[in-house]
Design a protein that fits this description.
The complex is a heterodimer. Chain A has 29 helices and ten strands. By secondary structure, chain A is an alpha/beta fold. In chain A, the strands form two sheets. A seven-stranded mixed β-sheet of chain A has the order 2-3-4-1-5-6-8, sandwiched between helices. Chain A is elongated and about 85 Å long. Chain A starts with 48 loop residues before the first helix and ends with a helix. By secondary structure, chain B is α+β, with helices and mostly antiparallel strands. Chain B has a six-stranded antiparallel β-sheet. Chain B starts with a helix and ends with a strand. Classes of the chains: A alpha/beta, B alpha+beta.
Chain lengths: 744, 106
């Protein structure tokens, strides 16, 4: 505790906008080491803007204000996507140049406030307070001005150099709300720049204003929000105690500074990475104590001498009701600041959002619309992707494999075999699978950016409640239809740990495009004209199992608890091509990085195991392993070792099943393969095989992501064991019943 | 309209709407739980019940004492949709139960 209050502590939680591409693969890697070496070349934290030649701007805003549109407009593909050190919250840093300055833009998580109600809020405020960006750009939504200014009011209380981007002015005008930016600027005492970020209007002006503030932060005369008169004495008293205590202990003022930005050349404190109460401005800490902020209260209790804490505690107890009044007071202050700047329509205008929501959020029509959207996304994905995929596998890959085979004519057979039948075939699986994924993400990105997905979550809330989850869990699960990895990652949006764990556990039961591709490949040969029906049946089975597991786990492991469902529905708007494009790009890139390399390695391993020793598949290591598994397979009618090996290889990546079958049947993934596989299986066994395939343990990339997100081997193990038991059990049941029906 | 009938008007309407007995034991008129407010009705937020984190979260979203809200959708079960400070917020039924409001005359 005995630390000089003026020092800036960077080491632990600041951003690491290093540009090494390997550091950008977030999901597969274990969370970055907690401790970042201070002063390493990767630290471009704002305390050393001169050394790094880079100015750090923090981008903050509530959810749904268009913050990421501003971020994407400014930084484009110059983005680094990773995790906040030691956290499961995504961190984006972008780089760009403006007016000759090299700028690093740190995209802080979207938060409604700077309370410590969620990990995102803690990250945002710790970053602002400890890393001290040169300037903060706050984006607000003009259509919901008062609500978005709530975060600005908290930022003003922190005394950081600030510019406000007043976004979505066009939407506000449509709703009949007219805002005068310069009046608002005068009231707040900070620059307010009008923006229509989706059309790239005003973004450059926002940067100019930010640079002007960063150049001379001391000149900014920002208005500090006041709290209600009845609480001002107690706030002053607590603040005075904090200042006195900090002065006693550290010799400083117990406050970072009244003139923000002045710390840029302050000495760095290299050996301390623990937050202490004196890291926070005293007036802000006092306010948060009055608000009952859990984190600050715990810090005060731990850091202050008992007598001092008791003194503060007595004040807080006497004003226990204050914590709600402070939020209310903040809104009153915002109302006073905004009043002169805003003109509202007299009568309620029926907006586009309200008209659309009459259908989209209706329990019945909304569900119908959701199913229709769902069907449309899949129809669109496969209609557009199938010709591309066929062309890639039929023309491009076949040509490549012939060319490579000819090129390697003089090399040993094992070498060309490994390259052509192992690696190239594996790369082909990834490549042919990519169009499906890209188009699915594009469709999903459009739905997300229009604001529709939140309606889907709202409509699904009733169903999710049966599993003790709520509507928000629907969003990551829906993502799972593309790929389970982003589904597991997407569970981060859930505030409650129990809901997050359950959603992660259920995510692998959502049939991803890779599994659907296997079904699409095998079903026509397996079921003939009934292929489409059978495919839908298999998807439906997965969803039924998902619901059953959800209900059972919630009852048995969590005692049927429910979590709070509080979610904002954004206004509908026209999707922005750049936002959707970058959404697709980032998701696809992380898939290729994570799954791509795993599939390549797996293909090489399968090829090697199927050729060693001796080169004949029948006597290979893989065949021996497969035969050893045959007894298990025979319960499911899958006694052929090749089928069992193909099933197992789906652990590396689901679509590996086809590649492996191709290698084992010696035909490649051509058209004859499905017929050949169908020929050795009875109808009941075909069902069993596909059921096992659909419910099988999550792929390696998903398992690694589960481990990373749950930070628990127990949960990861439980997830794998559960799915293994489910898939084998269900397949055996299907086979036994199917055989019985066929026989009887 | 007398004071008394004015005070119970929200409940009357509510009974008609719900067709069942509301959980009035803990909620004294003229306050009513947000979950019992029919669609289209406006009200002022009065009391937040529940834990500190819940109260803090909804207060940050704009559900503070005296804030004007309007119910956009309430089918008697499942989540409800409320407009608060210009934003559309979905609340689970259990969460809406914890926000006590005073209905405005319509």
């Amino acid at each position: 505790m005995a630390l000089p209050a003026q020092k800036i502590r960077l080491p632990e939680r600041i951003s690491r906008p290093d540009k090494q591409p390997d550091a950008a693969a977030p999901a597969m890697m274990p969370p970055p080491a907690l401790k970042v070496l201070t002063g390493s070349c990767h630290d471009t934290g704002p305390s050393q803007p001169v050394a790094a030649g880079q100015l750090t701007i923090a981008l903050v805003g509530q959810p749904n204000v268009g913050k990421s549109t501003v971020f994407n407009m400014l930084t484009g593909l110059n983005q680094h996507v990773g995790n906040w050190p030691g956290k499961t919250v995504e961190q984006k840093t972008g780089f760009f140049r403006a007016n000759g300055a090299s700028l690093a833009l740190v995209d802080l998580p979207g938060t409604y406030s700077l309370s410590a109600n969620s990990e995102e809020e803690r990250i945002a405020r710790d970053y602002l307070i400890r890393a001290r960006p040169a300037v903060v750009m706050a984006v607000v939504n003009a259509a919901i001005l008062e609500r978005s200014l709530y975060l600005v009011a908290e930022l003003l209380a922190l005394g950081l150099p600030l510019v406000v981007g007043l976004n979505m002015l066009d939407v506000a005008e449509q709703r009949g709300v007219h805002i005068e930016p310069h009046v608002l600027a005068a009231a707040l005492g900070v620059p307010v720049i009008p923006l229509v970020a989706s059309k790239n209007q005003g973004v450059q002006e926002l940067v100019d204003a930010a640079l002007a503030v960063a150049a001379d932060p001391a000149s900014q005369k920002a208005n500090r929000p006041t709290i209600r008169p009845e609480h001002q004495p107690v706030l002053a008293a607590v603040e005075a105690i904090l200042r006195r205590a900090a002065g006693d202990i550290g010799g400083g003022e117990g406050e970072i500074s009244a003139s923000p930005g002045a710390q840029a050349d302050a000495p760095q404190d290299a050996d301390v990475d623990r937050i202490s109460l004196t890291d926070y401005p005293a007036d802000w800490a006092a306010l948060k104590l009055l608000e009952g902020d859990g984190e600050i209260t715990a810090l005060a209790r731990a850091d202050l001498p008992p007598a001092v804490w008791d003194e503060i505690h007595a004040h807080l107890l006497a004003h226990e009701d204050a914590y709600l009044d402070i939020a209310g007071g903040r809104y009153e202050w915002i109302g006073r600041m905004a009043r002169a700047a805003v003109t509202r329509p007299k009568a309620g205008v029926i907006t586009r959002t309200e008209r659309l929501d009459r259908v989209a959020t209706h329990p019945l029509f909304g569900m119908g619309l959701l199913l229709a959207m769902f069907g449309l996304v899949f129809w669109f994905t496969y209609t557009v992707a199938t010709p591309i995929t066929d062309w890639l596998s039929g023309t491009v890959l076949a040509g490549l494999s012939t060319a490579l085979g000819a090129l390697l004519g003089g090399t040993p057979a094992w070498f060309s075999g490994l390259l052509v039948d192992g690696l190239l075939a594996g790369a082909g699986t990834v490549l042919t699978f990519l169009p499906i994924l890209v188009i699915f993400f594009a469709a999903l990105g459009v739905l997300e950016d229009t604001g529709y997905l939140a309606r889907g979550a709202y409509v699904m809330d009733r169903f999710m409640h049966m599993m003790g989850l709520h509507g928000k869990s629907f969003l990551p699960l829906f993502l799972g239809f593309g790929c389970n990895v982003p589904a597991v990652l997407g569970a981060r949006i859930l505030e409650d740990r129990r809901a997050r764990l359950l959603t992660i556990l259920l995510a692998p039961l959502v049939p991803c495009t890779a599994r659907l591709a296997v079904i699409a490949f095998l079903a026509p040969a397996f079921f003939g004209p009934q292929a489409a029906l059978a495919s839908w049946g298999l998807v439906a089975l997965n969803l039924v199992v998902l619901a059953a597991v959800g209900i059972a786990v919630n009852r048995l492991a969590f005692g049927g608890a429910q979590t709070a469902f509080i979610m904002e529905l954004p206004l509908y708007h026209i999707p922005n091509p750049r936002t959707v494009g970058l959404y697709v790009w980032n998701n696809t890139l992380s898939f290729v990085r994570k799954a791509g390399s795993l599939i390549l390695i797996a293909s090489a391993v399968v090829w090697l195991l199927s050729n060693l020793p001796g080169g004949a598949i029948e006597t290979s290591l893989l065949a021996r392993f497969g035969r050893w598994l045959a007894p298990v397979g025979s319960w499911m009618g899958l006694a052929d070792w090749r089928i069992m090996v193909a099933l197992l290889s789906s652990f590396f990546a689901k679509e590996n099943t086809i590649a492996t079958l191709g290698i084992l049947f010696g035909t490649g993934a051509g058209t004859g393969l499905a017929t050949q596989v169908a020929a050795i299986l009875t109808p009941a066994a075909r069902w069993a095989f596909l059921v096992a395939q659909m419910l099988f343990i999550p792929c390696l990339a998903t398992v690694a992501t589960i481990k990373q997100e749950t930070a628990s081997w127990r949960w990861t193990g439980a997830s794998v064991a559960l799915l293994l038991a489910l898939s084998l059990g269900a397949a055996a049941l299907v086979y036994q019943v199917g055989t019985l029906l066929a026989g009887g | 309209m007398s004071m008394v009938s004015r005070a119970i008007a929200p409940f009357r309407r509510h009974w008609r709407h719900q067709g069942q007995q509301p959980e009035v034991d803990a909620v004294a008129p003229p306050f009513t739980a947000l979950s019992h407010l029919p669609p289209g009705r406006s009200a002022l937020v009065r009391v937040l019940r529940g834990g500190r984190e819940f109260c803090s979260r909804v207060a940050n979203l704009g559900f503070t004492e005296g804030a004007s809200i309007q119910v956009q959708q309430n089918y008697g079960r499942g989540p409800i949709l409320v407009e608060v400070r210009g934003a559309l917020v979905a609340l689970g039924r259990a969460e809406a139960e914890k926000i006590l409001v005073q209905a405005e005359e319509s």
